[in-house]
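Same chain as my last thread, 72 residues:
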Amino acid sequence: MADNADRAAVTIQQSLEATLARRATLATQAANDECVDCGYEIPAQRRKAAPWATTCIECQGIRELRGRHVRK
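reply #2:
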């Protein structure tokens, strides 16, 4: 029978694996030079400042205004 420590270890492991999978997805998306919303090229200065960015500045601004800026 599993005790609390065993259940906690499983939960932590699952959380870690999910986080790493999300990070790998973001890194793959960030390797693309195009905005995922509009398809235009993301400027080099934005890439340098935020290498994980998947949207151009304009589309990111729209997302934030709409409240859709939460990473998934």
